[in-house]
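User: Some background: our group keeps a shared notebook of sequences we're curious about, and every so often someone picks one and asks for a predicted structure to add to the entry. Today it's my turn. The entry only has the sequence so far, pasted here. Could you supply the structure so I can complete it?
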Amino acid sequence: MDHKAVQSNSTHFDDRFSQQAAAYARHRPAYPDSLFEWLSTISRSRKLAWDCATGSGQAAISLCKHFEHVLATDASASQIANAISCEGVEYRAAPAESSGLQDGSVSLITVASALHWFNIPAFFAEARRVLCPGGIIAVWGYRECEVAPQIDPILQRYQDEVVGPYWSPKIRIVAEKYRTIAFPFQERSAPAFSATAMWTSEDMLGYLNTWSASQAFLNAHKERPTDRIAAELQLAWGTGQRRVEWPLFIRIGSLSPAITD
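Assistant: Of course. Here's the predicted structure to add to the notebook entry:
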């Protein structure tokens, strides 16, 4: 059944996305089906998956193809209200460290491009509480995207110079690909995965405007930061669509007993 219940027992959190929740739903890239298929093949059970910080549900709707039930939570009720309805996905507004799930009930936990916003030790404690023996947790993210040699430097300059001063310090662990965080699970390696999309220049500008740093710039200056690169980007991009690729970094582990390759 399709659940889209907007309820909340959330505590205060660093909310950088509710303002642009509808745009986030339209302009964020989807993750590859191969990632979710692989996660399902290494899961001991496919009864329940928890997609934490689901945003508008991009990961959750892919998980529901492989799991009987998916609980998709986000601390932002606005994000939940704009999430993509899908049979088998239950949406709930809840903070990462307080899922409301029963002890030992979850086969797979996923966090897509959001771990850096969490109270990480508290979330990992919650994950250890709700995972079943041998249950898996997978956290992943992305940073720079790749389009074309004449376009990538424009995007890099936008990221580093135009909105560079407006990034939260929490983004640092994204640049470090989550490798510097303590990960209290039995870890394993993962195959290489990338998110891809076929986008116009307008799609790319819409995506850039969803960045938390872009929103902070807008709030500070009352102008869209993408206006500072729009003409240059559109000229370099040309008409029509281009392939955009975001290489993913991923950390994956389990409770005892360990999962095996």
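Suggested note for the entry: The CA atoms of residues 75 and 95 lie 5 Å apart. The longest strand covers residues 131-141.
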